[in-house]
Amino acid sequence: MAEFGGKGNVQMFISEIIQQIKETGLEFSKENFLWFFPSIAEYSTLMEEAGFKVTFAYHFDIPTQLDGENGLKNWIHMFANHLFKGIPEDTKNEIITKVEKNLKERLYKDGNWIADYKRIRVVGIKE
User: pTM of this prediction?
Assistant: First the structure.
């Protein structure tokens, strides 16, 4: 059994970060995108190719609260720093500020940020 980020995981965060990098006049390098957020079909196929029989797969939303005003900024520093590889720190901070501003209306509720997590839970049996 495994559970991990699935297709569309933190898509609002990622899309806005990449958009702001580009709007700053920088090129976003796909090499900086280190995540793999597959669909159930993609991951089931990989499991089957590795000799597993997939007996259960579930893709679900799990909106997750990021505590406080700095929740999004803290999340970016902890999990998404690789998206900013090669970008000077002051430019990175400006981009993060723009990301917060653009997402606040949709993802900031009652003093906390809400991450748009999408998860896959899968069970497989080795054949």
Answer: 0.90
